[in-house]
Amino acid sequence: MSYNIVVLAKQVPDTRNVGKDAMKADGTINRAALPAIFNPEDLNALEQALQLKDKNPGSTITLLTMGLPKAAEVIRESLYRGADTGIVLTDRALAGADTLATSYAIATAIKHLGKYDIIFGGRQAIDGDTAQVGPQVAEKLGLPQVTYAESVKVEDGKAIVTRRLESGVETVECPLPLVVTVNGSADACRPRNARLIQKYKYAVTPSEKAALPAEKAALVDKREFLNLKEWSAAEIEADLEQCGLAGSPTKVKNVVNVVFAAKESKVIDGNDEAGLEALIQDLMAEHTIG
Amino acid sequence: MANFYTDNKALRYHLNHPLMQRIVALKERNYIDCEKYDYAPMNFEDAMDSYEKVLEIAGELAAEVIAPNAESVDAEGPHVIDGHVKYAEGTQKNLDAINQAGLMGISLPRRYNGLNFSIVPYIMANDIVSRADAAFENVWGLQDCAETIYEFADEDQKMRYLTRVSAGETMAMSLTEPDAGSDLQAVMLKATYCEEDGTWRLNGVKRFITNGDAHISLVLARSEEGTKDGRGLSMFIYDRNDGGVIVRRIEHKLGIKGSPTCELVFKNAKAELVGSRKLGLIKYVMALMNCARLGIASQSVGISEAAYREALAYANDRKQFGKAIIEFPAVAEMIANMKAKLDASRALLYETARFVDMTKILEDIARERTLTPEERAEMKAYSRLATAYTPLTKGMGSEFCNQNAYDCIQVHGGSGFMKDYACERIYRDARITSIYEGTTQLQVVAAIGNVTKGVYADQMKVYAAEEVSEEMKPLQARVNAMAEQYFDIVGKIDTANKEYFDLQSRRLVEIAGHTIMAYLLVNDASKAPELFADSAKVYVNYAEGEVAKNMSMLKNIVADDLAAYGVKKD
Questions:
Q1: B42 and A219 in contact by Cβ < 8 A?
Q2: Within the 274-333 window of chain B, which residues sit less than 8 Å (CB to CB) from chain A?
Q3: A215, B57: Cβ pair inside 8 Å?
Q4: Fewer CB within 10 A of the end CB, N or C, for chain B?
Q5: Which of A126-140, A262-276, B23-37 has the lowest mean pLDDT?
Q6: Which helix (H) or strand (E) holds B376?
Q7: Rounded to whole angstroms, how far apart are CA atoms A152 and A137?
Q8: Residues A106-117: what's their mean pLDDT?
Q9: pLDDT score, position A27
Q10: Residue B470 burial (C-beta neighbours within 10 Å; 0-12, 13-18, 19+)
Q11: Angle at A8 between CA A7 and CA A13, to 5 degrees
């Protein structure tokens, strides 16, 4: 059985390695000072998609990312690992979107794409930490959703998903199509592949292609798989009222620097290796370390 | 993310040597694969960009996967279960990651699903992986054996086996036996042709076989009954899927513990003949060994790099008497010498890799078409250099690797003697490099003919003619003086007295090695002073001392002293 798999991924500022100029004076993120990276949990999501494809030859993985044109890098990084193609959803009209407007745009793009059996996304992005986009996309598409996924198996048209919860592990079964958001505790994404990186290194969106020297542009013309899609709001027939700032009920009133007054505490049982492991896992999950 | 390729500027410098333009154009046959394979380069820049990108993948895996696993792999080691090897958990994880990254079949042609990379980037990947974990380099680096299948097996065998290597299957070379170590002519493993099913069958024991339970093994066996020397030996492919070989035990070793060193029992194991009978040792093993020696030279440089970095980090971190210990000249000097030896051995490694690259590529082209007279001359010249430089880089590089591992512990002081730091594993891992694939003493045997034939001397003259920067001119003059001493002593030494010449040969080879490495470093420092100027200065000082020491012994040890250096009975 082969599946049409969609992976939602986001290019984010690397907030894990924050220097002193990471924040602007007004309290917002200084994106220019932070390198743009593949959102970590979206890589976990991609790995789940790749494993599903490995087990079901003939399946295809399409990356969908919304952001600046340079977010095409996220698609290339996915192609280097085994994804098949990708779309950058990019438009000034989409800028400034909160999670409601973002999920509207992404859901509309997925509808425009048409075919999908399973949609993967990371649990949350490290720039916003909301964990809302995946679930809202599912709602807008009228699909079931499974969050905090650690592993996914698809059999007989059903997905069996293991979820990592605070108190333990839960296994659920869900019909296709569905949306799965993947936890950071799931398998780490596989490395880039030496053959695929050579095959796809010139994969470009139309706007990137325009900047290529003639010889490389000719190669892109010749090889269909090097052409990534770039969709605007008009292309997916989005209602502009629901996009970007216009479609975002969330307004930032002001940003306050918070100094922790009280220390939260949490007790982890066990003074053995298991206890230590649990502490490390916890600190990593909270992005305190790692 | 940590990356052992991008954090080491010397690698990018060596990758971008001017000769690469010619190497890559020949290797890619002027880029004709571009039409046929979607991952083949369209021109030189494209190919070099691919080399870099793939080395970045190797660098990331080395730093993020292989190095973090090294300690547990060393502690756990492999096991034998039901006659087969089970790798340490970390080794298996490394292999899985390497296979996902497609880092197998690196130098094989694309028609066997290889990457068709030239030797230089392949050796560089070896260098990078060895810095992370020398033991794992063995398991992974034995893909070298595929070269021998490529060069000597028939097309059907190549298609069946090489595609499997590219897909991630591991390899081994089963050569040595309990009574046939350095002396491979004594190999006794018996190969018998079975008329009934038209197959060869192997019976006997092999010992000290690195990664002996690999998927695909090259086996040296005696196919000619009644023979006793190398002319009765042939080369075979053993496929583990066919069965017939069990691992009797795994050796307990001082170092490279993650690499399973196996004793194998062949019981009527089915095997395929490679190439022609009787050429197993005299032709195929020689080719195999030359490949393997370059591999060990790169492993040595990788271990040297690890030793240098561990020592440097500790010397900056450790405070005594109110300051970091690197502030003390005695410690700083050790670190400077380590860096100089590292840079010198790496310069020699990549110079050798380029010579081997040119030789092998032209030999390969000669299988497809007749070479032009110019190409034939070029192949001959590079082949002469590759033959001369391979034992030199293996011999000198592995000795420097051991010296750096020793100094790495010394810099750590008492802490270095404990199991708490990586330096003790590095020290143990380094030790084998000057032993396997031919001891340093045997590298001298392989190299000494090139002293008398003038191969090193000719090449020193080529280096001396290179234009260097103003800053490097005084150093180049001093290296010229070292070369003059070498020319002089080679002209005077008594080669007729074989016993005396054998005794002195290591000193001659060492002088050649120091002088060549000094030249290479001075030339590198001329082009990239920010990377190599300090090492060039430190190395020339060191090399001059070594040359003086060796010259003194060449002069002072006379034929009459032979008895004093002779066989001792008690």
A1: yes
A2: none
A3: no
A4: C
A5: A262-276
A6: helix B373-412
A7: 19
A8: 96
A9: 66
A10: exposed
A11: 130
Find the helix packing angle between B145-152 and B155-166, rounded to 10°.
160
Chain A contacts to B (CB-CB under 8 A): 190-199, 201, 215, 219, 223, 225
The model's pLDDT over A60-84, given as tens digits with 9 standing for 90+, comes to 999 999 999 999 999 999 999 999 9
Express each pLDDT in A19-32 by its tens digit. 777 777 766 677 77
pLDDT for B396 equals: 98
Q: How much is the pTM? A: 0.93
Helix B119-132 × helix B286-317 angle, to 10°: 50
Q: How high is the ipTM of this complex?
A: 0.92
> Nearest by CB to A191, which of B40, B101, B115?
B101
By C-alpha distance, the chain B residue nearest A37 is: B1
Summarize pLDDT for B270-314 with one digit per residue, the tens: 999 999 999 999 999 988 888 899 999 999 999 999 999 999 999
* B 48-87 residues with CB < 8 A to A: 49-50, 53-54, 57, 60-61, 65
Task: Retrieve residue B216's tokens.
Answer: 């695909």
Q: Is the pLDDT of residue A260 over 70?
A: no
- The DSSP secondary-structure symbol of A204 reads B
Report the gap between the CA of B120 and the closest CA in chain A (Å): 16
CATH number of B1-169, picked from 1.10.540.10, 3.40.50.720, 3.90.1150.10, 1.10.390.10:
1.10.540.10
Residues whose CB is less than 8 angstroms from the CB of residue B44 and which lie 6 or more positions away in sequence, other chains included: B21, B24, B25
pLDDT over threshold 70, residue A290: no
**Residue B354 CB neighbour total at 10 angstroms:** 25
Gap from A215 CA to chain B (nearest CA, Å): 9
Quick one: pLDDT at residue A274? Answer: 86
Contact A197 B61 (CB under 8 A): no
CATH number for the segment(s) B171-278 = 2.40.110.10
**Whether B54 and A197 lie within 8 Å, measured CB to CB:** yes
CB contact under 8 A, A215 and B42: yes
Nearest chain A CA: its distance from B104 CA (Å):
9
Determine if residue B171 is left, alpha or beta; phi over 0 gives left, psi from -120 to 50 gives alpha, anything else beta. beta
Give the separation between CA B286 and CA B265, rounded to whole angstroms: 24
The three state secondary structure string of B454-509 is CHHHHHHHHHHCCCCCCCCHHHHHHHHHHHHHHHHHHHHCCCCCHHHHHHHHHHHH
**CB nearest B97 (choices: A191, A195, A201):** A191
Q: Which amino acid is at B407?
A: D
Residues whose CB falls within 8 Å of the CB of residue A80, separated by 6 or more in sequence, listed in order:
A192, A193, A196, A197, A200
Q: Per the CB < 8 Å rule, is B102 touching A215?
A: no
Cα separation of B61 and B56, whole Å? 9
Residues of chain B with pLDDT under 70: none
Instruction: Select the more confidently predicted residue: A288 or B7.
Output: B7
Residue in A190, A198, A215 closest to B100 by CB:
A190
Q: Could you say which of 1.10.760.10, 1.20.120.470, 1.10.10.10, 3.40.50.300 is the CATH number of the domain covering B440-563? A: 1.20.120.470
Taking Cα atoms as reference points, which of B496, B116, B410, B433 lies closest to residue B254? B433
For tokens 């030494």, the residue is: B493
Report the DSSP beta bridge partners of residue A64. Answer: A8, A87
Residue with tokens 């490495």: B517
Residues 6+ apart with CB under 8 A from A14: A34, A35, A36, A37, A126
Contact A191 B42 (CB under 8 A): no
Domain at B279-435, CATH from 3.40.50.700, 3.65.10.10, 2.60.120.200, 1.20.140.10: 1.20.140.10
Residue B518: name the closest of B547, B555, B543 by CA: B543
